[in-house]
Amino acid sequence: MFTLYHHGSSVCAAKVRFAMAEKGLDWEGVYIDILKGEQFNPDYMKLNPKAVVPTLTHDDTVIVDSTVIVEYLDQIAPDTSVHPTDPAQRAQARYWTKAVDEDLHPACGAVTFVCSHRHTVLKNLGADGVKKFLEATPAMSVTSNWKDLKDGYTRYGFDAPGAAEKVKLYDSYLAKMEAALDGRPEGGLEGGNDRGNNWLVGNAFSIADIAMTPYVNRLAMMSMRGMWENGRLPNVEKWFARIEALPNFKTCLIDWVPEDLTNDLRDNGAQSWPDIAKILEIEI
Ligand SMILES: N[C@@H](CCC(=O)N[C@@H](CS)C(=O)NCC(=O)O)C(=O)O
Question: Where are the transmembrane segments (predicted)?
């Protein structure tokens, strides 16, 4: 039996829910509210010492880290693999998942806290609660220095050191998607094949699309579609419309987000949009 420890605000958990749905795997859920600090419960930290979601248990086996979880599931259920079979395309897909884990995910954590979560935790937890919440974060968490970073993003918002760079880094991944969907070499500006690829790798839906979906959706939920709409990144716009039309999108990416959090992401994000647009030199 699969048990997934997850939360509606977690992009990594959304990735696993989406992959499991695409693979047709059933699971039971344990909901860990990471904005209330439930990830710091000592029993949960026995499963996941970094105090992050998701965690998957498969009978007695415990697997952490969303990409590793999806790779594990593909070994368990190879018939519904979400990885390309062609070795070169598999390597391409691996570049995407590696970049997401190393680069995009920490940038998303920063941007989400700066634009929305800081307002949610400040509103819901009160001064003492916020202090406890920030102190409880282990040094090695989302990143090896997440405790200090999260503290800075929560207290200072856009004025936290490095916040604007994280916005630009996030945006650079949308540009890489635009290039890949245009058939250009990853991140390249020239030399497209004009195929107008539907999907990120080999023009077939894969783990690369699953891995990027929660990060594009996070921006959409934060009222930031202006990062790709209005002609800025037309391939990304079409790709996301294709993703949103998939039957598993709403159930995995939208329905698990509680209504108050959905509202916070939308409203706090909308208030932060002028700052984001200024950093990215988007006219609004
Ligand atoms: N490398 C991990 C990262 C997991 C992670 O960063 N989870 C975030 C939510 S997406 C979390 O639980 N954060 C808790 C916190 O910020 O205290 C994975 O891919 O699963």
Answer: none
